[in-house]
Amino acid sequence: MSGDTDLWTRRARPSFLYVMYALLLWSIPMGLLAGLRPAMAAAMIRGMAAYLAAIPEPLYALFGTGYLGYTAAREWGKRRQ
């Protein structure tokens, strides 16, 4: 963990990434379920497409910015030590 003494800040950094990963990775089990039930596949695909389309574009940009910024800051901090 970082040397930051603020407990909430230390938790917020990785928690943000975990939430974003969960949102994006949820499509994997949904896709597998669709593959197991061919009769339901069309409905599942429509549902998954609607789910992914419902995630606002700025949220994807926020994830990318947060991920790249977090990893760059961690790497920079490690090199400074």
Automatic annotation (TrEMBL):
Pfam families: GTA_holin_3TM. Keywords: Membrane, Transmembrane, Transmembrane helix. The keyword Transmembrane helix applies. The chain crosses the membrane at residues 16-36, 48-70. This is Holin.
